[in-house]
């Protein structure tokens, strides 16, 4: 996605329990979909920036669902940025790994009947993960960010953004809120989607491989 299909809209102060961030809004020209960036401190100085790309999860982020770790990852990411005094969280409107809210609820129903999170998406006719991280590049470019310390358990995010010239110098694990309701979900992400469950920060090689 190039910068000519993603427009910067506006910004405001956003006080949170952890720090006062600046909230920036972007709009995709084609779809009108709105994405957010929460920024703390000076991030355009050329130094690696602590960052998270967080895909929207209304059930986890807003409704406190314990079926996933999304809400806890959102809170944990913001807390880590606040503790560092500098960083960025991109809130991407890609609900349900890109399948949308209603289809995610349909997928939950299939999971209740025995499917895992990957099987449920496939049964609905989708890929296991339909998210597109191309929009990350113009959002980061807006702030002059080219190097990241990326908070993620998902190596696919690292590979995706490095294709657009963004260097990930370190993967920072974000392991939170494993519980009886999401244990199978987390295990499936590790087994079938390649998510890494090590609690130790890891440098990333120049070719993007861990």
Task: Characterize the structure shown.
With 210 residues, this protein is of the alpha/beta class. It has helices spanning 58-62, 70-84, 95-98, 101-112, 117-123, 136-142, 155-162, 183-193; strands at residues 6-15, 20-28, 34-40, 49-55, 87-92, 147-151, 167-172, 202-203. The longest helix has 15 residues, at 70-84. It starts with 5 loop residues before the first strand and ends in a 7-residue tail after the last strand. The mean pLDDT is 90.
Number of strands: 8
Mean pLDDT rating: 90
Secondary-structure element pattern, one letter each: EEEEHHEHHHHEHEHE
How much helical structure, as a percent, in the residues? 25-40%
In order across it, which strands form the biggest sheet? 1-2-3-5-4-6-7-8
By helix and strand content, what is the structural category? alpha/beta
Distance between the termini: 25 Å
Main sheet attributes: strand count, strand direction, barrel closure: 8 strands, mixed
Unreliable spans: none
**How many helices in DSSP terms?**
8
Strand fraction equals 15-25%
What spatial form do the alpha-carbon principal axes imply?
A: globular
Rounded to an integer, what's the Rg over CA atoms? 17 Å
Note the main attributes of this structure.
210 residues, 8-stranded mixed sheet
Summarize this structure briefly.
The chain has 210 residues and is an alpha/beta fold. It has helices spanning 58-62, 70-84, 95-98, 101-112, 117-123, 136-142, 155-162, 183-193; strands at residues 6-15, 20-28, 34-40, 49-55, 87-92, 147-151, 167-172, 202-203. Helix 4 crosses helix 5 (117-123).
């Amino acid at each position: 996605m190039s910068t000519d299909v993603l427009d910067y809209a506006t910004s405001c102060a956003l006080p949170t329990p952890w720090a006062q961030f600046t909230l920036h809004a972007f709009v995709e020209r084609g779809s009108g979909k709105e994405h957010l960036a929460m920024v703390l401190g000076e991030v355009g100085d050329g130094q690696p920036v602590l960052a998270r790309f967080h895909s929207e999860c209304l059930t986890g982020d807003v409704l406190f669902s314990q079926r996933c770790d999304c809400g806890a990852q959102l809170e944990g990411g913001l807390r880590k940025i606040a503790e560092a005094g500098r960083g960025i969280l991109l809130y991407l409107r890609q609900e349900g790994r890109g399948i949308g809210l209603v289809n995610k609820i349909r997928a939950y129903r299939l999971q209740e009947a025995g499917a895992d999170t990957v099987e449920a998406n496939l049964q609905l006719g989708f890929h296991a993960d339909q998210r597109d991280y191309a929009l990350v590049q113009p959002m980061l470019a807006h702030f002059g960010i080219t190097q990241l310390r990326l908070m993620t358990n998902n190596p696919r995010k690292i590979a995706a953004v490095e294709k657009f010239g963004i260097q990930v110098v370190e993967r920072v694990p974000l392991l939170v809120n494993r519980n009886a309701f999401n244990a199978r979900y987390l295990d499936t992400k590790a087994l079938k989607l390649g998510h890494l469950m090590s609690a130790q920060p890891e440098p990333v090689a120049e070719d993007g491989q861990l």
